[in-house]
Amino acid sequence: MRTFPGGVHPFEGKSYTEKKKIEKLPRPKQVTIPLQQHIGAPTKPLVEKGQEVKAGEKLAEAEGYVSVPVHASVSGKVKALEDIDHPVAGRGPAVIIEAGETEEWIETIKIDEKYQDLSSDEMRKRIQDAGLAGLGGATFPTHVKLKPPEDKKIDVALLNGVECEPYLTADHRLMLEYPADIIRGFRIIMKILGVKRGIIGIEKNKKDAAEVMKKQIAGEGDMEVMVLPVKYPQGAEKQLIKAALDREVPSGGLPMDIGAVVQNVGTAKAIYDAVSSCRPLTERVVTVTGPGIKEPKNLLIPIGTHYQDIIDFCGGLTEKAAKIIMGGPMMGIAQPNLKVPVIKGTSGILVLEGKQAHLPFEEPCINCGRCVEVCPSHLLPTTLQRLVYHERFEEAGKLHLMDCIECGSCSYICPANRYLVQSIRHGKRQLLRLRKKAG
Amino acid sequence: MNVQIISSLITLGGLGLLFGAVLAYASKIFHVEKDPRIEKINEALPQANCGGCGYPGCLNYAEAVVIENAKMTLCAPGGEETVNRIAEILGVEAEAQNPMVAVVRCQGAHGIAKDKFLYEGIEDCNAENLLLGGHKACEYGCLGHGSCVKACPFDAMAMLDNGLPTVFEDKCTACGICVETCPKGIMQLLPRSQKVFLGCVNKNSGKVVREVCSVGCIGCGLCAKPNITPSEKIIMSDNLPLVPEDWEDFNMAVKRCPTKSFVVRIPSEEEEPAEEVAKEESV
Fold first, then answer.
1. B181 in contact with A at a CB cutoff of 8 Å?
2. N-terminal to C-terminal alpha carbon distance within chain A
3. CA of B134, closest CA in chain A: separation in Å?
4. Do the chains contact at A426 and B122, CB–CB below 8 Å?
């Protein structure tokens, strides 16, 4: 079977939730909706304190092309506009909405039977207006990814149902429960890009999802399901392209440089909702899981819901619960409290117990080279770390420091517990700072 | 025997003469006109190669002064003496220089400023800052890994036991490398003549600051009131008072500041009169 070079096999942990149907979280009493939930330009708030808003109403407008608006996920009254604990940025501005008695939605959401006749530009406009950013976790504005520059010829679209991050099952459940919407969304992606070939990548540990998707695309000659072996980080777009197409994204390049565009299955469903009925992105599927949670679940959660409400709905934390992570164990970010909200990029809430929660102490490198073996970007993590520790960022840059995808395979495999991915991440930011300073 | 020695002497000596002649000729042909002042200025510079002037090293700065007309006051380590020497070499009037010093604008030591999580990872402020802005509950607060201390090329800084860095003012040359290194913008260069500065950079509202730190400026604006600062030199901006270089009547403000956020570098000589004013005030 096809795959990419390198990678690791961490404990999968998917059994907690892979058999559990997506449940709808009861409407929260209060939501905190951060104004910045995507990568790119910030948004400009449109609402004021005390204002009544309907669910689906625009709370903040995109400022610039690489930006998407933010919408209210519940109807109610704007309680405040203030800085809150942001799950990714640390601090950031947000709109806090007190939910009203009844749920009132904006009137513009209605099914458009003729959505297939829309032009690519009209479709992209609907996608941007709906506030779509990559739901796999990277949250890059979707409409930008769907408009490659004229000189880049795209010949294949990939649908990412790999979900290689341990513990997470949100995409798995989506594929089982909403296959029709996902495929319709994928059809829209292919139409916008004007490609004649679509590949759905799914890992072998989700055979049931692969079967469902295969059944769904029966009769659609230009789509195929590709079952890939289980290996982390196969869900990273460059690795998925290598595995499915055997094409390699050049150093410093993007998938569009080699004629491919990758979208996550969750994003595909949201694209369908946005284009077919102008439905803004106000909720997403989140896997709430881990040994530290009493009843792990897959939940459909309004954006802005506080972790506390979600964890309460899942029976609460166990006594030994020690660490709460947004995302999965490999690339997720540990959270400081339970007041933080779910944002567009929250694919999971993982609660770890006791010893799992701690980072072991860093010991001297024994030069075993395992990090080099597993690095999916063909880098030398241990050399890069040494250069970063000595602040020789430019030299590290020459060794392709910037090509690191921060998957954490090197840190995972290291027998000396070196903080490899952290130092490379730090080095990347410092190098960018230096380059910016130099102009 | 003798013949061998003499012949080798002649051969080698001849070769030496020949190469010498070639080199002498080449140096005439390929002669590069270089301003002698560059070398002189380079000699006058302290040779710390700290980069504080904005050029990679002392020689580059010397070249910049002569060729690009760079300012002669950029060398902080050299101080006034160097400026005078450069002016002498260039044959111009010495530009006035305002000597500066680095200060630490955070007083949120261990136990005073609250933490929001336990950090495990690389001991480096810039690395930690990437993770939700670091473990301090105050998003503006010192992270305490001493990246500024490690970066200081003059050994003019050290970490204290309370988790904050300190500057040895006699060693500080105001090169500004600590200012550039700190991800939180806590290090700042001040004129050496400035007597007092605000030991906090948190721009949040008072309520938010109080929750995270007991010495953080809450932006109450008391110090800006005319009865506290008669000279009215304090202006509030972004929930923080802007402390001017020449603030003299600060005793009352420092004393009355509810969070004790001011740091006095040089105590005022007019301690007593200020006390009296305070008493009159309370009557």
1. no
2. 46
3. 8
4. yes
